[in-house]
Specification:
The chain has 875 residues and is an alpha+beta fold. The protein is built from 26 helices and 39 strands. The strands form 13 sheets. A four-stranded parallel sheet has the order 2-1-28-29, covered by helices on one side. Strand 30 (582-588) and strand 31 (594-595) form a beta hairpin. The radius of gyration is 35 Å and the shape is globular. It binds one RNA strand of 87 nucleotides through helix 7, strand 11, strand 15, helix 11 and strand 35.
Length: 875
RNA sequence: GCCCCCGUGGCGGAACUGGUAGACGCGCCUGACUCAAAAUCAGGUUGCCGCAAGGUAGUGCCCGUUCGAGUCGGGCCGGGGGCACCA
């Protein structure tokens, strides 16, 4: 045994089989131990797993195995985010049915995940495309509908002409569909919406309770919800314009009202459209704005443009003061009222607009130390805090006081029986449109009847199943053109009616799967008892790309499910961790084409790294390190890695090199290092198996010398690794394991070199240290750890062993070595008893030669002693 | 344009609340074993001066606070990410 190399290829499947046969990762809902729910974002079954998955699931598995060893009942499930457009695209291209394409992919990827040796409870596996899952999603939809959380409304939608589908605003990137990249068109459609805005305020304020989320994600969500407090102000018009006698604007800066020099309307504001009726310049301008639309946004950014409508608005505080009303390209119709008053001195966009059209620029807020008479605005608006000026009764007030004063006065002034202004809280967040004109999604369980209108599908008829006989040869929705599927009888009146042919956004599927995992076979969407026991997810791990949408929708869903009696909590994810990407350097051939890592050969010549194309020997230029992608050909296939090096090596390396929230660079050398360590730990374990006391030997009463040192080192590492895993600092945990391996290897070599038979306390210490080391490595390298555990003479599985118990007193040293500085510069070390008093330490320090040399004949001015830390002598 | 994050050896990165800068890994160099290679083992590896002991500079740049700054504050420079022309 001793001289054999560890053979991962043979050992890994063997241990996986044992784990599976004994069902040790199956989790029960009625286990008395404290619960711990660790979840990684479930994958889309695209075909094969990629390195990002390996990293993500390796992290989750470390947490799961660690918490299990710490005595928790751990839920660690896996499933498939299985609906979505790629399946339909594959169907259209390769004549494979989306269902078989999806399930084939699931089978492949499941086998890949299994070869990673993850401690998953596969009995809870979910696929969102399974009618057994989406049946409950349809029930949730209907319950939400009943509870007033679903709404059907006409709305202008982003139409993706390539995917033939509607996109949410958040799915439009630079005016293009986020998947297809096609230019998005505007269309009017009747859509189903989840009323997420009902929870705007709560979703925002509860972010403050998510203290185990990354600050970055919390900030992104806050910005996305976008709360702003301001004032709605009515501006009377000097003449009626098409029946309108006023225009309402929203502002967060009512304090700057006396600096107003114009009013601006969005291009599709009703008043703008009215004004366009008999003014071709306005009409042309509006058309120009519509034509350029969102796609031209970036180009338009530079220039603020507008057209004077000729209409004049009356200043709310001065009936004689008239402001020109413009239609402007920089005013958004979807936000606020679609109209603003322009205050050029204190808004950059307004300033640029005013300069272009020679409108007045009057500062009304000036820096506290500036003279209002001479303060002028140049190319930049003044956005800082300051004191009000040129503002009549507001002069001298602070900005908040002025805001308050304006609000108070205008609220109390009525014109046409209504107050001139009212306070308003405005959110950027919009309702979540979920209708998709696609086949491969969860059908919306609604029937449209001529007589009865919108009729929910009765619960007993759920699920509304997708028909399987569909074609993908034409664009558009196969459900809509299916010959029979949509024709049904109205559940209410029995007359012929038709089904809703839209399916749900796939973000719906992933908004509650974490709840379903707690009772995957329940015949209601959730088993409330199980959900109550397991939720919230204690540690959720996934990519930063889901920082906004998926997480926000899940937070909404959890609240909506609470309101409809399916759950008992608001926040689904107590701890969130967002991992970095896996990146790899890129290789370019002379002709500019990319080469894959598998095709190149890397060698060292005169200390220089030389990369060549293996087949032809041609030189390769090493390009920047980038996210692994097919187009750059810098991907590494997990299957190759797993079959060459084994799962433990792949997992180890994925966790070792970089902090988990940062990108990790995949390098061949790094993997080699990891695989070397596998062998080192295996050799050390076998060495220890010979040197150490047999398993089960009674603990000696006393330890001294090397035995004590071995124990101290082992327990110090134990303390650090435990803390590092708990804080998800896997790279540090691994560095600690390396260190422990080094010191134990040295200690073993020293003991052997001494030539005496190792017995007594040292033999025991070696066993203890070895067993600690193996268990510390186990969450990261579970297969090797099992093999080592067996080699140490155990019949049990290390996967089921408890975490080593820390003996804290071993961490306390009797003497401590303090660094000694003179004037902040390290000059020496001093070793003193742990509880030495300051005078004692000072005396010892001043007696040191380097200190005496630095001080010369002078007496020290001060001696600063930081307990247990450092001594600094100031001369 | 706005907001956020990050700059530490040849490389990835350590350094808890201000307290020995460079843990650990990779790479490289030297040596041992070997006919040779791989594997393994031992030693070295921030720059500069020095045989060495040691000294000296050093965490993107400048300034400040402090007995003491990679860490805190101000101002720059560079890189990355997010976004909303959001009034």
């Amino acid at each position: 045994m001793k001289n054999e190399r560890y053979n991962a290829r043979e050992a890994e499947p063997r241990w996986q089989k044992i784990w599976e046969e004994r069902g040790i990762f199956k989790t029960r809902n009625d286990d008395p131990r404290p619960k711990y729910y660790v979840l990684e974002m479930f994958p889309y079954p695209s075909g094969r797993i990629h390195m990002g998955h390996v990293r993500n699931y390796a992290m989750g598995d470390v947490v799961a195995r660690y918490m299990r060893a710490k005595g928790h009942n751990v839920l660690h499930p896996m499933g498939w985010d299985a609906f979505g457009l790629p399946a339909e695209n594959a169907a259209a291209q390769n004549k494979i049915h989306p269902k078989s394409w999806t399930y084939d992919n699931i089978a492949t990827m499941k086998a890949q995940l299994k070869s990673m040796g993850l401690s998953l409870d596969w009995s809870r596996e979910i696929a969102t495309c399974d009618p057994a899952y989406y049946k409950h999603q349809q029930k949730l939809f209907l319950d939400f509908l009943k509870a007033g959380l679903v709404e059907r409304k006409m709305s202008k939608v982003n139409w993706d002409p390539v995917d033939q589908t509607v996109l949410a605003n958040e799915q439009v990137i630079d005016g293009r569909g986020w998947r297809s990249g096609a230019l998005v068109e505007q269309r009017e459609l009747t859509q189903w919406f989840f009323k997420i805005t009902k929870f705007s305020d709560e979703l925002l304020s509860a972010i403050n309770t998510l203290d185990r989320w990354p600050d970055k994600v919390r900030l992104m969500q806050k910005n996305w919800i976008g709360k702003s407090e301001g004032l709605l102000i009515r501006f009377m018009l000097s003449q009626n314009a098409g029946g309108a006698s006023e225009v309402e604007v929203f502002t967060t800066r009512p304090d700057t009202l006396f600096g107003a020099s114009f009013v601006a309307l969005a291009p599709d504001h009703p008043l703008a459209l009215e004004a366009a009726k008999n003014n071709s310049a306005i009409k042309d301008f509006i058309e120009e704005c519509n034509r350029t639309g969102t796609a031209q946004e970036a180009i338009d950014k530079a220039e603020k443009k507008g057209v004077d409508t000729g209409i004049r608005a009356v200043h709310p505080f001065d009936l004689k003061w008239q402001l020109p009303v413009y239609v402007a390209n920089f005013v958004l119709s979807a936000y606020g009222t679609g109209a603003v008053f322009g205050c050029p001195a204190h808004d950059q966009r307004d300033l640029e607009f005013a300069r272009k059209y020679k409108l007045p620029v009057k500062p009304v807020v000036v820096p506290p130390d500036a003279d209002p008479k001479t303060f002028e605005i140049g190319d930049e608006a003044y956005l800082e805090d300051g004191v009000l000026a040129n503002s009549r009764f507001l002069d001298g007030l602070s900005v908040p006081a002025a805001k308050e004063e304006v609000a108070k006065r205008l609220e109390n002034e009525t014109r046409g029986n209504r107050p001139v202004a009212k306070r308003q809280i405005q959110f950027r967040l919009r309702d979540w449109g979920i209708s998709r004109q696609r086949y491969w999604g969860c059908p919306i369980p609604i029937i449209h009847c001529e007589k009865c209108g919108v009729v929910p599908v009765p619960d007993k008829d759920l699920p509304v199943q997708l028909p399987e006989d569909v074609t993908f040869d034409k664009p558009g929705n196969p459900l809509d053109r299916h010959p029979t599927w949509k024709h049904v009888k109205c559940p209410s009146c029995g007359e012929p009616a038709r089904r809703e042919t839209d399916t749900m956004d796939t973000f719906v599927d992933s908004s509650w799967y974490f709840l379903r995992f707690t009772a995957p076979d329940a015949n209601t969407p959730t088993d409330r008892k199980a959900a109550k026991y397991w939720m919230p997810v204690d540690q959720y791990i996934g990519g930063i790309e889901h920082a906004i949408l998926h997480l926000l929708y899940s937070r909404f869903f959890t609240r909506a499910m609470k309101e409809t009696g399916h759950a008992d909590l608001d926040e689904p994810f107590k701890g969130l961790f967002t991992q970095g990407m896996v990146v790899h350097e890129t290789y370019r051939k002379a002709d500019g084409s990319y080469a894959s890592p598998a095709e190149v050969k890397i060698s060292m010549e005169d200390g220089e790294r030389v990369v060549t194309f293996e087949k032809t020997g041609e030189k390769i230029e090493v390009g920047p390190i980038e996210k692994m992608s097919k187009s750059k050909r810098n991907t590494v296939d997990p299957d190759d890695i797993l079959s060459t090096y084994g799962a433990d090596t792949a997992r180890w390396f994925m966790l070792s090199d970089s902090p988990p929230d940062r990108d990790v660079i995949w390098t061949e050398e790094g993997v080699q290092g990891a695989t070397r360590f596998v062998q080192r730990l295996w050799r050390l374990t076998n060495e220890l198996a010979e040197l150490a006391a047999p398993a089960g030997t009674a603990k000696p009463a006393q330890f001294s010398g090397d035995a004590l040192n071995v124990r101290k080192a082992a327990h110090a590492v134990l303390a650090n690794v435990s803390e590092d895993i708990e804080r998800l600092r896997f790279n540090r945990a691994i560095a600690q394991v390396y260190q422990a391996t080094n010191s134990l290897t040295d200690a073993a070599a020293k003991a052997k070199a001494a030539g005496k038979k190792i017995a007594g306390d040292l033999a025991y210490a070696f066993r203890e240290a070895g067993e600690i080391l193996v268990r510390l490595a186990a969450p990261m390298m579970p297969h090797l750890a099992e093999e080592c555990w067996a080699a140490l003479g155990h019949k049990t599985l290390v996967s089921q062993e408890a975490w080593p118990v820390l003996e804290r007193e071993l961490l306390i040293e009797e003497t401590i070595t303090l660094p000694v500085q003179v004037n902040g510069r390290k000059r020496a070390d001093v070793t003193v008893p742990r509880n030495a008093g300051n005078p004692e330490i000072e005396a010892a320090v001043l007696a040191l030669d380097p200190v005496k040399r630095e001080l010369g004949n002078r007496a020290p001015k001060r001696v600063i002693i930081v307990p247990q830390r450092i001594v600094n002598v100031v001369s």
